[in-house]
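Notes, p. 3: input format for complexes.
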Amino acid sequence: MQKNIYKIVHFNIIGDELGSLIALENMHQVPFEVKRVYYIFDTKSRVRRGMHAHRDLEQLCFCVKGSCTFVLDDGTKKDIIKLDSPNTGLYIKNLIWREMFDFSKDCVLVVLANKYYDPSDYIRDYKEFKRLADSVKQAG
Ligand code: TYD
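Output follows (140 residues plus thymidine-5'-diphosphate):
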């Protein structure tokens, strides 16, 4: 797996007698300026989502409730990451094929992104992704 394409980040939980709170700020816990937030919930059982890569997008994903599992593929190697705590984030950068599965019934997966939604940034064909990932590796 190429370095810095993804990383796991742990958020500080501010706990007191009232309960728990996590605060995320641009350029602090979130390593970019957030332009978009979306969340995935009520996912049906045995659903697989994702199945794409992005050309130029940074994202920070975390489950505020429940859990789900990511497969991250850089074209050469696959890593499996389970997100099952509101204080664990997964930062993902360009050219990484992602699939999400094993959503718990109560899963609320929040994604912060550094760009507005742009369908042309998606690579939905695995062969095209593999070609691009290989050419970037050769160039670098
Ligand atoms: P998609 O990114 O394909 O979902 P996933 O990869 O999680 O399965 O998006 C599903 C639909 O939602 C698709 O029609 C595009 C739309 N969408 C937006 O309109 N804005 C967004 O920010 C995102 C992420 C998706």
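The mean pLDDT is 95.
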